[in-house]
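Handout, page 2. Input:
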Amino acid sequence: MLYAERLEQGAFGCAARRGNDFRAEMTGFDGKPTSRGAFIVSLVLGGSAAYRTQLFLYLKACGRTELGTMNLWQGVDPPSASA
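Output:
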């Protein structure tokens, strides 16, 4: 089945699920119990943070010295120092 066909069926089946489905208990990668919803959210957000950090480190390694931790974690430039 093609990716586009899967999307038309409801984002890989998530649209057909109800709230109770996401509250159901499951075992995470670490072996601890978690809800399906929490597992999906942490998996997606964790991957996004890792990608953002990797891109930030690549830019720093290429000499972008003006970038700081506020750029990485808040997505904004740090406030300028007032004289």
